[in-house]
Write a structure and sequence with these properties.
- By secondary structure, the chain is an alpha/beta fold.
- The protein has 2 domains: about 80 residues, Nucleotidyltransferase, domain 5, CATH 3.30.420.40; about 140 residues, Nucleotidyltransferase, domain 5, CATH 3.30.420.40.
- Helices cover about 40% and strands about 25% of the residues.
- A hairpin with a 2-residue loop joins strand 2 and strand 3.
- The two termini are about 15 Å apart.
Length: about 260
């Protein structure tokens, strides 16, 4: 069964077509999160002539949910599942206030437990970088939130008179030979150190052994390149998690 899965983020939105846990096609919508025409264009282009059995929405932008749900109902003829802590996730949530967990983090936990088992630490590199921990028996227990790479570099640009806005890509030498290169080194090498310290803090504090490390999100590959930790880059983990949650709940819903 084909299912349209949507991950609404603060910077961009990913829309995928899932079938039996495989994310076959993905489109990205940058900006325009509440633009009806843009939503229709992406959804129609993704689905084509494929028969769609359902849809699921994962969002950290509540203000965008209404237009997406309305458009998806109109375009797909079905009521989308909204990912929250109240639906079946396929992973136990041992967290004091589960309603405060971002839907994307729940989707990551669901996808990670299915693909990697437990214990697993998922690092999602987006506007923020989140670290989520899934352990045996207790399941999702919590994590860490830190500023994402774009926040770090954009803040320097916005709050200084002379520092430029840089692109987070490309190689560099041992020392910056330009302002942009110096900033790029600070971002990438400094980020490696932050990731290493946070993962070490989590593994030691929770006494995790043989933990799987998974990196996802738009900046994961660049941020983790060269890091001396065995991260697996899983680009579609969030969408896979959303599709898994839809499958777990498909037979329990009343349309």
């Amino acid at each position: 069964m084909n299912c349209v899965v949507v991950d609404i983020g603060n910077t961009s939105t990913a829309v995928g077509l899932a079938r039996d846990g495989v994310i076959g096609s993905v489109c990205h919508l940058h900006g325009g999160l509440k633009d009806k025409l843009a939503i229709a264009h992406v959804v129609r282009g993704l689905c084509g002539q494929a028969e769609v059995a359902g849809a699921a929405l994962c969002s950290v932008v509540p203000a965008a949910n209404g237009v997406w749900l309305t458009q998806m109902r109109r375009l797909l003829g079905c009521r989308p599942l909204v990912v929250t802590h109240k639906v079946e996730l396929g992973v136990r949530v041992s967290y004091p206030r589960p309603a405060t967990i971002g839907a994307d983090r729940l989707a990551n936990a669901s996808g990670a437990i299915a693909r990697y088992g437990a214990p697993t630490i998922v690092a999602d590199f987006g506007t923020a970088v989140t670290f989520d921990v899934i352990v045996p028996r207790k399941g999702y227990v919590g994590g860490v939130i830190a500023p994402g790479l774009p926040l770090m570099t954009d803040y320097l640009y916005e709050k200084t008179a002379l520092l430029p806005r840089i692109r987070l890509r490309g190689r560099f030498g041992a020392v910056g030979r330009s302002t942009a290169e110096a900033m790029r080194i600070g971002a990438k090498v400094g980020y490696r150190g932050m990731v290493r310290e946070i993962v070490t803090h989590l593994t030691r504090g929770l006494k995790l052994k043989k933990v799987a490390l998974c990196g996802t999100g738009g900046y994961a590959k660049w941020a983790l390149e060269g890091l001396d930790m065995p991260f697996t880059i899983d680009a579609d983990l969030t969408l896979f998690g959303i599709s898994r949650i839809w499958e777990l709940n498909a037979g329990r819903r009343d349309d």
